[in-house]
């Protein structure tokens, strides 16, 4: 087995190039499913390393393969997402975004460059391991339906089929050099609630002549909030939250319609379906009683993410071996969503967190215009991805 000293040595030697790659990606961000120049850049990096790949997955996605000795023995996959967010960057970095209103504010530039770094490491030592490493460069993580689901449909997990997959996500709450893991249930499904509550507007001083949609909408919101208590009783993490209400009336004008938007998140697919039905029933029953109607557009988002217990237990121990126990942290449940969950529904998966803040100087949070990372985290990211992949190829 290749030593951890060798992996760390290679990661150190590759770090300047990977920093250069990350800065290029950061400076030239592209929105979900529009990562055309990003895809070309990744292909160029793979060409320079002599790593074969296929393009055209969901237009911009790429799947590459690093074949060791006896390549058909086993395959293991590494995933890097590559889309950015519609945020105007305010970091004043010398490599800040040149694409107005678009920014890598969620660290996907770090994810992609870490996988490129791991590719450089593994490609250099491919004559020293058996099996095949599959590299998945994925578009569209930030928007529905999620690039992961589409890449799977287009065969990204075939030819060869990997025995497992690992992905990482930047985590500004942790310092660079640290990582976090959680076995089993980790991140929530995320669905969008869009309701149009229809009544009959009119003069506020003539309540007998109107069917007030604001009253109906208010009762719906209160009933939706009660579903959170049902989740507590069922001991299933559940969040239903309304974040937008619009009824364009006035002090003496009742509108015809009220718009409600919110989110529903949970960590159990059966419970998810149950709550969908309850939301529909609440809307139908309350509004019909009051003489109105409602259009319920419940947009189903990503499924909940469950890290495979066996794979994640091993991966966490690999991290301890490589980085030291003091640098490996247990994670709490997280109610955010992530389309890596689609991979975990197909094959064993492990999604972990990569610390990215400078020691003693926490960065701004994800999805903010001032989000930055300590680029030394790239060494940790590429080294750990490589280390996990090598061990998993040897695991029987």
Question: What can you tell me about this protein's structure?
Answer:
- The chain is an alpha/beta fold.
- It has two domains: 4-187 and 304-394, 3-Layer(aba) Sandwich (Aminopeptidase); 189-299, Alpha-Beta Plaits.
- The protein is 36% helix and 25% strand.
- It contains nine helices and 16 strands.
- The chain has helices spanning 4-27, 36-49, 108-124, 147-153, 213-234, 269-289, 309-323, 341-346, 377-394; strands spanning 53-56, 59-67, 75-81, 132-138, 165-175, 179-181, 184-187, 189-198, 202-203, 238-246, 253-254, 257-266, 293-299, 305-307, 328-330, 349-357.
- The strands form four sheets. The chain has an eight-stranded mixed sheet, with helices on both faces. A four-stranded antiparallel sheet has the order 10-12-8-13, with helices on one face.
- Helix 2 runs parallel beside helix 3 (108-124), helix 3 crosses helix 9 (377-394) and helix 5 runs antiparallel to helix 6.
- The longest helix is centred in the first third of the chain and has 24 residues, at 4-27.
- The chain starts with a helix and ends with a helix.
């Amino acid at each position: 087995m290749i030593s951890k000293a060798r992996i760390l040595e290679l990661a150190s030697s590759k770090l300047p190039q990977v920093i250069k790659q990350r800065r290029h990606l950061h400076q030239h961000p592209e929105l979900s499913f529009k990562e055309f120049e990003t895809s070309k850049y990744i292909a160029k990096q793979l060409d320079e390393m002599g790593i074969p790949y296929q393009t055209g997955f969901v237009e911009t996605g790429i799947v590459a393969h690093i074949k060791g000795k006896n390549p058909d023995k086993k395959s293991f996959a590494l995933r890097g997402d590559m889309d950015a967010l519609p945020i105007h960057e305010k970091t004043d970095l010398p490599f800040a975004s040149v694409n107005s209103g678009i920014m890598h504010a969620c660290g996907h530039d770090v994810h992609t460059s870490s996988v490129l770094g791991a590719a450089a490491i593994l490609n250099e030592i491919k004559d020293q391991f058996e099996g095949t490493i599959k590299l998945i460069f994925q578009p569209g993580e930030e928007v529905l339906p999620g690039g992961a689901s589409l890449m799977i449909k287009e065969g990204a997990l075939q030819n060869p089929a990997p025995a497992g997959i690992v992905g990482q996500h930047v985590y500004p709450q942790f310092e660079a050099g640290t990582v976090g893991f959680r076995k089993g249930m980790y991140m929530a499904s995320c669905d969008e609630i869009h309701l149009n509550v229809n009544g009959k507007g009119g003069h506020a001083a003539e309540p007998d002549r109107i069917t007030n949609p604001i009253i109906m909408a208010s009762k719906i919101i209160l009933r939706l909030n009660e579903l959170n208590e049902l989740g507590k009783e069922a001991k299933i993490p559940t969040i239903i939250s309304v974040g937008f209400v619009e009824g364009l009336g006035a002090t003496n004008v009742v509108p015809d319609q009220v718009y409600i938007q919110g989110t529903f998140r949970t960590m159990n697919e059966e419970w998810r379906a149950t709550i969908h039905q309850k939301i529909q029933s609440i809307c139908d029953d309350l509004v019909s009683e009051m003489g109105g109607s409602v259009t319920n557009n419940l947009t189903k988002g990503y499924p909940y993410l469950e890290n495979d217990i066996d794979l994640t237990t091993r991966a966490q121990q690999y991290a301890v071996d490589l980085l030291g126990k003091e640098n490996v942290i247990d994670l709490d449940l997280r109610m955010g969503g992530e389309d890596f969950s689609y991979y975990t529904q197909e094959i064993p998966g492990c999604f972990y967190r990569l610390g990215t803040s400078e020691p003693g100087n926490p960065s701004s949070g994800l999805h903010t215009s001032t989000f930055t990372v300590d680029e030394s985290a790239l060494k940790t990211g590429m080294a750990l991805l490589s280390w996990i992949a090598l061990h998993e190829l040897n695991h029987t």
